[in-house]
């Protein structure tokens, strides 16, 4: 890829790229900066940069709104739904990758099609079922729903990773008398771990940010960070700095995870069509 | 190769995923379909079967449906135009040699990981607020009257907010695609005297065609369902009520389940039209 270009051109490109990159990143940077200012400074842009800073917003957000509970809900829902999805999806993806039948492709595409169902079309029935089961506004309900929402992506991602494991290795293991179980445990799993890890990472990100079901199916008990932040849409008094602090805490872990999973993101969100 | 034994094992292993997704798809959708033919308004205690296609007729002929369709088209079209054209440009730029590639990529991709409620509220308050926002400050600095973005230009503002999130997505996927282009062929074309425009038009763009199509289709599916950004900024006012939000309001706020369900089925049909095209492309890729 190292094309020969003049240093001047490279310098020019660098400047242009960083101007754009900085502009795109600016709203996030600004949010972080505002979160370390007092409310009075937050509504006066020049004073945000006056050098004084405070951590009080972070403590205030926690004291006034029990931030930790929302955070915990987010963690339980995102991690829970991802792990449950992985456990359900691994056998399916394994079977489709290594024992493909005539209908494997149809099944894969059909799974993908369920992902395209507009959520709002089934919002009322889902609410109704949850009310009947007494599960509205519970973490259990959201874990299950987000598992189902992301299951097609999890199966697809795992499938594309498993597909890359050479089948000959499995055949060799079978020749050596490995049982199906030991084949999975000793041969396949070690080779599949990186793919599984990336799948987990991407799906935690997707589940963490999911904001249709988390907004429409929770009120207080199971509300995760998406819903907590949404409560700032009709606030009282000055709130910019507190909103910024809450936002910074809500996006920081996912930003870090996201940066680590750029490559997997492309594969996961295009269902393996772009790698 | 696969023995009968492993076949049945495979079926057994696929069963949980398939059964769960089947239930997930059929039960709620079946209920929505059923409700869509009923006069079902819980607050008034009506639960009458069956009114035929009355709900569909009422939903489709209402002016709010027509407005919502137009709003949805502008919203999806505007965001697609910004993210795809911007994404191609950014991907080409990021593919050039420059210093600090890793950091630049991290900065560009970051907005995609911001949860929708955060990005919408940060834009609404810190940036677009007509009294205390950054843009208002900038406008005043140049002696102009601040713009009341989310009231006077509400639809445009939402297009900007959502584009900010999806531009990184388009860029990342198109960049991945560009980098898989054989750079030796490009260099050969350059040696043969093909200019930058010709190389872009005849070599890079055709290579990107498939990735662009995929970006458009995937974004369309997500953009048809924009919800949180509207929920926390305008609440559907000022001409920002898209189809998803209209159905949400019918079902949850006005509690007209029959009417909302008919709308839901229409949304499902619309989304499926897009989905069919996406599936074809992805399906072809499976054969390759």
TrEMBL record, chain A:
The chain crosses the membrane at residues 12-36, 70-95, 107-128, 140-162, 183-206, 212-232, 239-260. GO terms for cellular component: plasma membrane. The keyword Nuclease does not apply. It is a multi-pass membrane protein. It comes from the Bacteria. GO terms for biological process: transmembrane transport. It is found in: Cell membrane. SUPFAM superfamilies: MetI-like. Keywords: Cell membrane, Membrane, Transmembrane, Transmembrane helix, Transport. Gene3D superfamilies: MetI-like. Coiled coil: none annotated. Residues 71-261 form the ABC transmembrane type-1 domain. PROSITE patterns: ABC_TM1. Belongs to the binding-protein-dependent transport system permease family. This is Sorbitol ABC transporter membrane protein /mannitol ABC transporter membrane protein. It comes from Wenxinia saemankumensis.
UniProtKB/TrEMBL annotation, chain B:
One of its GO terms (biological process) is transmembrane transport. SUPFAM superfamilies: MetI-like. The chain crosses the membrane at residues 12-37, 68-94, 106-127, 147-175, 208-237, 257-279. It is found in: Cell membrane. It comes from the Bacteria. Residues 69-278 form the ABC transmembrane type-1 domain. It is a multi-pass membrane protein. One of its GO terms (cellular component) is plasma membrane. Keywords: Cell membrane, Membrane, Transmembrane, Transmembrane helix, Transport. Belongs to the binding-protein-dependent transport system permease family. This is Sorbitol ABC transporter membrane protein /mannitol ABC transporter membrane protein.
